[in-house]
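To fix ideas, we give here one paired sequence and structure record:
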Amino acid sequence: MKQGDKLPEVNFRVRSLGQWTETTTDTYFKDKRVILFALPGAFTPTCSTQQLPGFEKLADVFKEHGIDDIYCLSVNDSFVMNAWAADQKLENVKVIPDGNGDFTDQVDMLVEKTIAGFGMRSWRYAAIVNNGTVEVLFEEPGKGDNTTGDPYGVSAPENVLKYLQSSSIDSNSI
């Protein structure tokens, strides 16, 4: 995944209100400007104490900068993602379960984390996606299979906000 890339068409299996629903990439990204952030796993330390809560806390500020929705994607099934959303008391961030890693694989962010007992997972990143096209990508450094590291900083909500604030300043000065 890189700036200017069109997101792949992928089907997501989502469980909501006791029913399975097939959703697609368009369901989440068509005709909207959104933040998509992905992380190694629900209920994991950095994901649960920093990244997800940070995006949740700054949601109103992101909306002031033209963001329609905020999505958290992980290579976890819908049951896990729904339980995590409930545990985190999410009101603003919506979760996307990529249970088989299909989307994550197609955007070249699927990495092997068997050394940590995780299997295949997403590398940590955030992106601003405008109508299905990557406007800007915030990818953590050192992406690779079976690395013991899990860097966090580049994809932090504060960095995404800095980009939005600077692009607002640029567009206002034209």
User: Anything to note?
Assistant: The longest strand covers residues 33-39.
